Amino acid sequence: MNPKDNPFLEDNTVVKRNYLAWVITIFAFIITTSAILYFFVFTPNEVNGPSMLPNYEDNDYLLVSRPYSWFFSSDFGQALGIEYKRNDVVVFSDKVEGDIVKRIIGMPGETISMKNNYIYINGVQYTETYDILNSLKKDGSKLVNNGPSITLTEQEFFLMGDNRDVSYDSREIGPIDVSRIKGKVIFRLN
């Protein structure tokens, strides 16, 4: 029977076209949604090296939430609870090393110093010991044991690796401006 003679039967080419249009639409939706999520919401990052041991190992894949970098210090971000906090693990961009994973130790506006191999934040001892061999360089100055302190601006963070002995962090490269922070680590993928 010819499909044209029976209104309840569809032409096979029409069915194929509808199916193809449906597949293309679904594929476009998946690609668009993935791109939006990747560029605006979440991005994967990899830990390179042992600087975050024992909490994160070399080659661990992490999921980073990007809205933290957009809404930091905004009323909207604070209302949603999207703000960086001390001990958050973040990813920041470095001209030399690329993307680097570190932990927030010092917050904007705080004063960081080192006395008797301990980090002090606003005069209060931070609970972890400091590797005396590493030092902070900022405009030619260094954060050294019993030396002068550094005060962070309202847009700067002091970041350190969990494995203090081998970490390339704010002790070497100075405070990190919020504009260089890509986002907060929210999940380990592997």
From TrEMBL:
GO terms for cellular component: membrane. It catalyses: Cleavage of hydrophobic, N-terminal signal or leader sequences from secreted and periplasmic proteins. GO terms for molecular function: serine-type endopeptidase activity; signal peptidase activity. Pfam families: Peptidase_S26. It comes from the Bacteria. It is a single-pass type II membrane protein. It is found in: Membrane. The chain crosses the membrane at residues 20-42. Coiled coil: none annotated. One of its GO terms (biological process) is signal peptide processing. Its EC number is 3.4.21.89. Its main location: membrane. NCBIfam families: sigpep_I_bact. Belongs to the peptidase S26 family. This is Signal peptidase I. The gene is lepB.
